[in-house]
Amino acid sequence: MASIPRPPVVAVMGHIDHGKSTLLDYIRTANTAAGEEGGITQRISAYEVLHKVADGSEKKITFLDTPGHEAFSKIRMRGASVADVAVLVVSAEDGVKPQTLDALKAIKSAGIPFLVAINKIDKPNANVLKTKQSLAEHEIYVEGYGGDITSVPISAKTGEGVPDLLDMILLTTDVLGHTGLVTNSAEGIVIEAHTDKKTGTNATLIVKDGTLKCGDFIVCGKAWAPVRYIEDFRGKKIPSATFSSPVRLTGWSELPDVGDIFTIAKNKNEAMEKATAYKESGSHGANTQAVITTPTSEAHIPVVIKADAQGAIDAILHEIAKINNDRISYKIVHTGVGDIRETDAKIAMAKEGTIIVGFSVTIDKQADALRERHGLEIKSFGIIYELADYLKELLIARTPKKMVEEHCGTLKVLKFFSKMKDKQVIGGRVEMGIIEVDAPVKIMRRDNEIGRGHIRELQSQKIKTSAVNEGTECGLMLDAKIEVAPGDKLESCRMIEK
Ligand code: GDP
Fold it and tell me: To pair with 94 at 20 to 30 A between CA atoms, which of 108, 120, 237, 415?
């Protein structure tokens, strides 16, 4: 049997609020048959649509329903690129923003082609030309603006231009000529994994080649599962699935890791053996039950992470790795899929200052009681960016203070009057800032520090004063071992906490 074209798998990326979720929602509702949506009770992280092309035929496209490049990067870090093409969403109101560039970086390192969707063209302030210019300023050269990157103006809200975008996605990937062989045994990638109270271990996979059938034994890194039934993206049971379909399987020996590649074993024994061998080889990814990150700085904030899915934990770990400074960083002491429970609170109580962060999970009663009693810091979020912002703020708040010297004024020595032991009486002019009584000073001669001293007294127009401002002449008594001379400069400084 010959290879046949494989439908493209598409990742939608871009800056927050530029319309990724709205676009994904629009495509899903406009391109899947009415009524099918009703059946979905659980979140599934990818879906398929059928798009009618010019010749009247319908072509399949798979969308990864996980906007945000963190999860995408995580999968890529495991050495696989689940998406064949990316859509970079850029708002026609705002143009290129920092996360647009982050997304672009992730796309480039995945080595996949991308298209630009210039979104929100229905809005009164939308400016497609200006957006193209803004793209060019950031070296994203679209057609007509110095390059050959396809850009499609769209409105994710009204749907205008979305069919063109789907056409262009198909055109872009047709050229790549991805094919698959249905007679092969299935192979693909895990895009999401979580534990569910009712159904146990769940994983969403994208089949990249071959056919996955009921009765197969699937192996995925350290985890394996008998394929008892396959659910499609609508939650409907299907006997088999081929490329590029997203499917959900339950009943894993343990949760597979996001980004892991799955294959099919001949039988149950082989599946178990492969999973064990993988575990023993130590080639598996992070041990998510007790990941201990090496802090990059001396102080650290211990953190427990709980989330509804393994993919979310991976995305949070990826975020946390970026949040640190030279004085403090986070140290992950425990991670797990599921609600925040008493056991998590107890882990946090073991070390003072430990925080618990949750994503799409609740804090159960026992954990909440311990939080109240022991003043634990426990927070759960529904949006990754908010969680990351919270961690950034907390890091700043907990950064150990350091005493630093702040330069607050410079006085030029004009006259040397007298000296008695270490006390010198001099006259000078404040050239910059302010000079205050009791301030420590550096004595500078031709830009070199030759010693240090202390201002004992200040006089302005023969009257004692506590401070003299810029441009003013004054007399002062300096306490210093070094004898100053006209032309020297006194730089006053104070120690401040930073
Ligand atoms: P995301 O953070 O990139 O997923 O952005 P969202 O899809 O959540 O969109 C952010 C906001 O922009 C929401 O209030 C959307 O309703 C709005 N929005 C997204 N696309 C469009 C569009 O094409 N036109 C208009 N008028 N609003 C849009």
Answer: 108
Q: Which two tokens stand for residue 379?
A: 């927070």
Q: Is 20 helix (H, G, I), strand (E, B) or coil?
A: helix
- Among residues 258, 256, 229, the alpha carbon closest in space to that of 241 is found at 229
Residue ranges in 111-184 assigned as alpha helix (H): 128-137, 162-176
Mutate to test the pocket of ligand 1, among 12, 17, 90, 125 (most ligand atoms within 8 A of CB): 17
Q: Beta-strand (E) ranges in 338-391?
A: 355-359, 377-381
Rounded CA gap, 191 and 188, in Å?
10
For residue 346, give the nearest of 330, 333, 358, 359 by alpha carbon.
333
Q: Which atom of ligand 1 is nearest to the CA of 154?
A: 23
Q: Is the CB of 156 under 6 A from ligand 1?
A: yes
Pairing verdict, β 261-265 and 187-196: antiparallel
Question: DSSP readout, 68-109?
Answer: SHHHHHHHHHTT----SEEEEEEETTT---HHHHHHHHHHHH
pLDDT at 43: 54
67 C-beta closer than 6 A to ligand 1? yes
Classify strands 211-213 and 217-220 as parallel, antiparallel or unpaired. Answer: unpaired
Which residues make Cβ contacts (< 8 Å) with residue 17, sequence separation at least 6? 91
- Would you say the CB of residue 157 lies under 6 angstroms from ligand 1? yes
Q: Two tokens at 483? A: 């004898």
The pair of three-digit structure tokens given for residue 162, joined into one six-digit string: 């979305």
- Tell me how far apart the 2 most distant CA atoms of the chain are, in Å: 104
Q: How far out from the chain centre does Cα 343 lie?
A: 27
CA dihedral 370→374→377→379, nearest 10 degrees, is 20
User: Does the beta carbon of 161 sit less than 6 angstroms from any atom of ligand 1?
Assistant: no
The one-letter code for the residue type at 366 is Q
Instruction: Look up residue 259 and give its DSSP letter.
Output: T
* Ligand 1 contacts CB of residue 184 (under 6 A): no
pTM higher than the cut 0.70 = no
Beta strands in 316-439 (DSSP E): 328-337, 355-359, 377-381, 403-420, 423-436
The pair of three-digit structure tokens given for residue 41, joined into one six-digit string: 């009770």
The two three-digit tokens of residue 6, written as one number: 């494989």
Decide: 64 and 11 in contact? Cβ < 8 Å: yes
Q: Which of 417, 426, 482 is nearest to 456 (CA)?
A: 426
Do strands 9-14 and 85-91 pair parallel, antiparallel, or not at all (unpaired)? parallel
Q: Both tokens of residue 138?
A: 């950031």
What is the C-alpha to C-alpha distance for residues 29 and 49, in angstroms, rounded to an integer? 9
- Is 219 within 8 Å of 21 (Cβ atoms)? no
DSSP single-letter state for residue 485: -
Give the count of beta carbons closer than 10 Å to the beta carbon of residue 394.
19
Per residue in 318-329, pLDDT tens? 888 888 888 888
